[in-house]
Design brief:
heterodimer; A: alpha/beta; 4-stranded antiparallel β-sheet; 20 helices; about 60% helix; elongated; B: alpha/beta; 6-stranded mixed β-sheet
Chain lengths: ~575, ~600
């Protein structure tokens, strides 16, 4: 079932659209009187049946036509272009909203560049169809029609008009022939461009490596290959499209040749007047442009149709995670995982297998294990970034799938490992979930996360901007800022996902102590691969290859023989002195 | 706040004219090799335009010499028809040729511009990559160059074709009737005035909508990358609101742009039609007064209407010209950025023990080094450190202590302010960068893999290394078994982020790379920080294999990573606070001992001394 995007928009602004089309139509009809009046003027001039005042009258009529046409067509054009921009605005808004609803399983499959191209290219291409194409089509069709009508009205016999115009009638066929072929070649060009952009992105990202290995020449050659491919495909496109574009005026000229020979013959034999001959040549000339425009329009339309289809496809994706029909707000903060097994979409491997895990309200739990053991997967399932199978996760009293997404996420503060920050101020980053937080609260959170001192050292303190036009934070600073962002939320449940891995030992100790204090009697889940970050937890789960292999307190786990004790030995001693193979 | 930022940005885009001129000159150098092609285009255009413009003249002959004179032979009329046909075939042929030629030229220019740009960027000092996001560099290489190509294929083409058409029309008009033609010339200043009065306003509108668009795109891109956070913090509504705000301001800028453009184009249109009326009035009087032939008036009216086509076409190129000149400025700005660290006096490079890196002994000397970023506070203060060939050095310290800066100086990502850094007694500033790069191998926290096969990633696409050598390197670091498990073994294609491989596995591949390139000095900058303990164990063993017999510097914030080094350097606020072996330092009961206790999870114990 296709989602309709364009028709509802145009329908909702039907009156505006009609008005602008009418304005353009009226303008063009008036404009088509121009050759007629000129022809009449010339006839009377030739027959000497004209006086000075008549000449002035003709001139004034031409002026009036010019002014009417200019203002009406101008206004119509403005309205129609505004309409197109309005569509663009609406579409972008819908796209962005849609992006916020799509879950990570979509993001994992589609790159940011690909999604951006919807916002940048596809929307623009559809907008062009609305404003430029419709505008030009309206223009062209009306101009053509009125030219025909005027030709017939000025007494030109159809027997003359038809042969004169016939070469022009080939234009639509040419367009249909060349259009798809040109489109195919232009797609090749687009692909080549995209490949070069990708290659540039990748190579600039790895420039340090390239420079460090002095491999610049090899890399430049690789990049050069993508550049050359663009040139070749561009030239292929040009060979086709420039032939097409030159062919159209040629057909116009062919029409004029017929007009001169046949129309001239008729004028010689007295079947038509010279004035009629003159206006015939003018009409034929008048028709060349709109016909050419129609050709261009059809090509643009084809491109736009592809874009529109892409947009429709994207917007009709139903987010795979959304509120159940009767969603319940979250109450309670206990976490209960029952027989949870989970595969990532499209993966045959189980990421989690039969997990039994229970965290009582107010408790601090730790999850430890090596990379890829499934720790982060649990965090993602708890946030419903991915959907767990029914009846495997309960939070408070309720199955997680019945909870409202909003309520769930408002009640969980999540601090991921990568510490992604937005390019706004430090303050805005920390107060991300509570935009109206007081300065004091922001400062408190940053103190607890051990980033306060660093922020104070920036010249603009909390107003310091991050990102391209601001400061760059080190990995540890980013992590601590991201931690402050999680802490200020003061949510019933806190999930720390390896949140202090890039922080040095001294700072880590202080931060962990702060968290311990802050989260007294509040449910806290600490995921880490360092024992130092979670040994204070009330209960620690040890994960390995998607299973929970041990659980207990720090002391009880140390007493057991198993992964935990091995890890502890490793992390206490120098790694290269470790005993484990 | 946002407004003022916008103005600042707009002001930045108001290009400095002198610089713009320089930029244009610089880019034009790329057009030089194509002089012949441009001449060819000019020639083709001339013929095509001529063939096109002679057509109304032919109709004039039909009217004046045949129809008006009441002649009745059909033959000359047919002849003129044939002539007309020939002319239009000529126009077809040459406009096709001209189009192909200009595209070939434009694409050639852009291709070499892109390649040069890439080469140039790859020579710039790493500090650039700290300051500039790779996204904006990509924009320079892809869209800015594309706009420049449009300058050649559209703007220049239009200037050539339409300018010539205009000129020829004027010539033909004077040919037909000098008096009427000189009256028409009144149009030129009028057109000039209109164009001039719109010019600066149009540029401002254009730049406003451009900068708003780029802000909208940047915002979207960032939110897309951070969408999981937006969702996890349930901030969709708020981000949507901010997006809508930016969307709205962009829409407003668009409307302003449309208004200006429509007004501008319409005034030309109007002017065109008015001038026909004017000519009809003037010419009509002249015909009536018998001073003008009727056919001439016809041709004149046709020409005056055609007169406005090229002018319209040229003004249509206005926006392209605008963006092309902005792009040229940006490209030129990048191309004229000199690497901060130029290779000095290429002829007189000292040779590091015969050049082959294995022969470099690998002694490192930091002599009284002071360094700071930009004009900021020094982050390294009068530091001296001398490292013996083959020694294994661990460097610890809290964030901001200057560990990474020290390495940046050794790799010459930056230059020292005072003092010198020497390898085997030679100042790194005197070594060619390529030699230095291959002498000092660096492994960082984030292994970077390119899209391509594993083999090519190990040898960095350099086919001077054989497949066998690359595989040998993988066996050496113990990555062989892992690679063989992959679906296509050594030919498995990796994507940019090394999909399908864990961080540890990717790090192993980057070690294999180092082994293949055989640097005399190995630097590990938090190379194992992102790995869990067991993976670190695996990687560490590979590391030991690589480090054997090499001068090795290991930076880490985890004591456990460095504790078995020959010597541990403890850095604190830009100076060396302590140094010695692990046991010595623990015995000293200083800062190191404190760090060690924290890492052992025993911060409370106080030392007795």
């Amino acid at each position: 079932m296709k989602l309709r995007l364009l028709t509802p928009y145009l329908a909702s602004r039907g009156w505006l659209y009609t008005a602008s089309l009418l304005l353009i139509a009226a303008g063009n009809i008036i404009q088509s009187y121009y050759p007629h009046i000129l022809g009449e003027f010339i006839d009377r001039l030739k027959n000497d049946d004209i006086a000075m005042p008549d000449i002035r009258m003709y001139a004034l009529m031409l002026v009036a036509i010019a002014v009417c046409y200019g203002s009406m067509a101008g206004l119509g054009q403005y309205l129609i272009m505004r309409l197109g921009r309005g569509f663009e605005r609406l579409m972008r808004k819908r796209l962005f909203r849609h992006f916020t609803r799509l879950s990570e399983s979509y993001y994992a499959k589609h790159g940011v560049g690909q999604m951006l191209s919807y916002v940048m290219n596809d929307v623009t291409s559809v907008r062009e169809a609305i404003s430029v194409c419709l505008n030009q089509t309206a223009n062209a069709v009306i101009l053509l029609l009125s030219a025909f009508v005027m030709m017939a009205a000025s007494g030109l016999p159809w027997g003359l008009i038809v042969p004169c115009v016939s070469p022009l009638l080939l234009i639509p066929f040419l367009v249909v022939y060349f259009g798809p072929r040109i489109r195919k070649r232009s797609r090749i060009v687009q692909n080549a461009l995209a490949r070069m952009t990708e290659s540039a992105e990748e190579q600039f990202g790895g420039m340090r490596v390239t420079q460090k290995f002095a491999a610049e020449d090899v890399m430049a050659e690789r990049f050069g290959g993508t550049v050359d491919r663009i040139r070749e495909s561009q030239l292929g496109l040009v060979r086709m499209s420039s032939f097409f574009q030159a062919l159209l005026p040629f057909l116009g000229a062919l029409s004029l040749v017929v007009t001169i020979a046949y129309g001239g013959y008729q004028a010689l034999s007295g079947a038509i007047t010279i004035g009629m001959f003159v206006s015939l040549t003018l009409y034929v000339r008048l028709m060349i442009n709109p016909l050419q425009q129609i050709g261009n329009v059809i090509n643009t339309m084809q491109r736009s149709r592809a874009s529109l289809e892409r947009l429709q496809e994207l917007l009709s994706i139903i987010p795979d995670i959304s509120d159940a029909e009767q969603s319940v707000p979250l109450s309670g903060s206990g976490i209960e995982l029952r027989g949870l097994s989970f595969n990532y979409p499209g993966s045959p491997m189980e990421a989690l297998h039969d997990i039994q895990l229970s965290v009582k309200p107010g408790m601090t739990a730790g999850i430890i294990g090596r990379t890829g053991s499934g720790k982060t997967t649990i965090a993602k399932l708890l946030l419903r970034i991915y959907e767990a199978p029914p009846r495997t996760i309960r939070i408070g009293e309720t199955d997680i799938r019945e909870l409202g997404l909003g309520s769930l996420r408002e009640n969980i503060a999540y601090v991921p490992q990568d510490g992604f920050l937005f390019s706004t101020t430090m303050r805005d980053n920390i107060a991300f979930s509570r935009r109206n937080a007081e300065q004091r609260e922001v400062e408190d959170a940053s103190r607890q996360a051990g980033i306060y001192e660093s922020i104070q050292q920036f010249s603009e303190g909390f107003q310091t901007r991050l990102g391209e036009r601001g400061v760059t934070l080190s990995g540890g600073q980013r992590q601590r800022t991201s931690l402050a962002r999680g802490l200020i939320k003061d949510a019933p449940i806190l999930i720390l996902d390896d949140s202090v891995s890039a922080v040095d030992a001294v700072t880590e100790t202080a931060i962990i102590r702060n968290i311990q204090q802050l989260r007294q009697n509040k449910t806290t889940l600490i995921i880490a691969h360092r024992i130092s970050a979670l040994k204070h937890a009330d209960v620690i789960f040890v994960m390995d290859e998607g299973r929970i292999v041990q659980q207990g307190t720090h002391e009880s786990l140390l007493a057991e023989k198993g992964i935990y004790a091995e890890l502890f030995a490793l992390q206490q001693g120098g790694t290269s002195h470790g005993q484990i193979g | 706040m946002a407004k003022s930022a916008e103005h600042a940005e707009a002001a930045k885009q108001q290009q400095n004219p002198a610089r713009s001129k320089e930029a244009r000159k610089g880019i034009m150098i790329y057009a030089k090799p194509y002089r012949k092609a441009f001449a060819g285009v000019f020639f083709c255009t001339l013929i095509a335009v001529f063939a096109d413009l002679l057509q109304p003249y032919l109709v004039k002959i039909v009217i004046d010499d045949h129809l008006m004179k009441g002649r009745t032979e059909f033959r000359p009329l047919l002849l003129i028809g044939v002539l007309y046909l020939l002319l239009s075939i000529l126009a077809l042929l040459f406009s096709y040729l001209q189009n192909n030629l200009i595209q070939r030229t434009g694409q050639g220019i852009v291709a070499s511009l892109r390649k040069d740009l890439f080469r140039h960027i790859s020579r710039l000092s790493p500090s650039l990559f700290d300051r500039t996001s790779s996204g904006s560099l990509v924009t320079h290489v892809s869209s800015d160059t594309e706009t420049v190509s449009q300058f050649f294929t559209q703007v220049l083409m239009s200037l050539m074709r339409d300018g010539m058409t205009l000129l020829l029309i004027i010539v033909l008009m004077f040919q037909l009737d000098p008096v009427l033609a000189s009256y028409s010339m009144v149009l030129l200043p009028v057109i000039g005035i209109i164009a001039f009065s719109f010019r600066s306003y149009m540029r401002k509108t254009y730049q406003l909508s451009r900068s708003r668009l780029s802000r909208l795109i940047a915002f979207t891109a960032e939110n897309l990358s951070g969408m999981n956070l937006v969702q996890a913090f349930h901030q969709e509504k708020e981000q949507e609101r901010q997006f809508a705000e930016k969307n709205e301001t962009y829409f407003e800028a668009n409307l302003r742009e449309i208004r200006t453009n429509v007004l501008f184009n319409r005034s030309f249109d109007l002017l065109g039609n008015l001038s026909v009326a004017f000519i009809a009035w003037l010419g009509g009087r002249a015909v009536l007064g018998e001073s003008l032939e009727f056919g001439i008036l016809y041709a004149f009216i046709t020409y005056i209407r055609q007169f406005f086509q090229p002018i319209n076409a040229i003004t249509q190129q206005w926006n392209t010209l605008q963006s092309a000149s902005v792009s040229m400025d940006r490209i030129w700005g990048l191309l004229s950025t000199k690497p901060d660290l130029p290779d000095e006096g290429k002829a007189s490079f000292p040779v590091l023990n015969g050049g082959g890196s294995p022969k470099v002994s690998g002694a490192i000397d930091f002599r009284n080094v002071t360094f700071g970023y930009g004009d900021g506070e020094p982050v390294i203060k009068a530091l001296s450190l001398s490292i013996r060939p083959g020694e294994r050095i661990g460097i610890v310290g809290t964030t901001g202590a200057g560990k990474s800066s020290l390495i940046s100086l050794l790799c010459r990502f930056y230059d020292v302010r005072k003092g010198s850094v020497r390898i085997d007694g030679i100042d790194v500033r005197e070594l060619p960068l390529a030699t230095l790069s291959r002498t000092v191998g660096l492994v960082q926290q984030e292994p970077y893999l390119f899209s391509g096969s594993i083999i090519d990633n190990i040898r960095l696409f350099d086919t001077r290394f054989s497949r066998e050598q690359a595989m040998e390197a993988c066996r050496f670091v113990g990555a062989d078994a892992l690679i063989r498990r992959l679906p296509d073994g050594y030919d498995t294609m990796l994507s940019e982020k090394g999909s399908g491989l864990s961080t540890g596995e990717r790090q192993l591949l980057s070690f294999a790379r180092i082994v293949l390139y055989q640097p005399a000095i190995l630097v590990l900058d938090e190379a194992t920080a992102n790995l869990d303990s067991s993976t670190e164990q695996l990687v560490q063993r590979a590391l030991d294999a690589v480090a054997a017999g090499r001068t090795t510097l290991v930076i880490a914030h985890r004591i456990s990573t460095v504790m078995d080094a020959d010597r541990i350097i403890v850095m604190r606020s830009g100076i060396i606070a302590e140094q010695g072996s692990h046991e010595e330092l623990v015995r000293q009961r200083g800062y190191y001992e404190q760090l060690f206790r924290h890492s052992q999870g025993r911060p409370e114990e106080r030392g007795a001394g």
